[in-house]
Amino acid sequence: MKKLLLIFLTAAAVCLTSAFAETLMVAVDNVTVHDEPALASDVRFQLYRGMEITPEERLQRDGIVWVRFDIRDHHFWAVESDSTATLFTGKFIIDSCSNSDKKILVTKKLRTLTVFVKNDNNTWAVDKTYPIGLGKGTGTRAFTREITRPFAYLILMGNKQYDLFESTGDALNNALYGDAVIALDKAAKSLTLYHLKHGRLDEETEPQIFAYGEKILYSDYVVEFSADTFDIIINNELYPKMKKFDRNTPEGTYYVARINPASRFGLDPETHRALPSLYLSYPNAFDAWDALRFGIISIDDYTRITAAISQMQLPPQDTAMGNLIMIHGGGDDDWTAGCIALDDEDMKELLDKVGLHTCVEIK
Q1: Which of 127, 174, 201, 275 could form a disulfide with 266 if both were Cys (CB 3.0 to 4.6 A apart)?
Q2: CB 68 within 8 Å of CB 76
Q3: How, if at all, do strands 139-146 and 30-34 pair?
């Protein structure tokens, strides 16, 4: 029988007397965790590919190398390597929606949702990108005044400050205080991002040219110009969701776990009836693993979550990690409690493109 190795990627070799400062990453599909360093001991839960542990002890028993790691003062053991091929089988659960012909990418910093479709040659192509809103506390949105002159200069400064000038002279005089400047040319319908150094153009960094309506990402700023007005988002509090009431939007790989046929967020622009919403599979296994390590949930909660994910179901919504993370309508400002919100017309269109078990990556 072919030898199957469970390899933790960052471990160079088995050394029973080595220090245990390294962090080890699971490199196979799943690893069964035991109460004791023995195959016959009680099984507590499973780890999945990409999850990390910090070993506290290694020992060898019956030709098997065991690794001990601790969670909240409890000791757990996993096999680091084994010569049998029957212990560690099963599908990598995070890949369980990889066969989809469509997927969604949510980019939190840019406040965009992009739908991708799979081509015949198994490559992905952009279908459409929509503006979105996130949690109420995940950014500061500011609208500058309408631009009436042919040129304008938006100077971006540290400490989330900015200033807008429609005079070239005023812009040059204030460039000393900026990190970058976005120059608007209304005749060319373009914006150019210049990097500054000590009040002068940074000649080591090439300027970037953007068209009207494109989002410009610079440091913590997102800038868009349309309808003669600058729209500025200052990104802050862009943390992944970890627990109930933190109002953060998750980060990771999910799927549409359930479709609510009539959401209380968003109305069909034509019929004025409630639009459906898409429940995401939050928390995923990695969210649950982090929450278990930090004492937010119990092992029983962790096991319930990973079991639901393995069956492509909606994970338990009754844990301290929070619940009801959706893609829904209602407007694309940052007003939600951690969901992803679209304009009602965009949400109606999105519902025609995607469905149950569509993969959703949030980053």
Answers
A1: 275
A2: yes
A3: unpaired
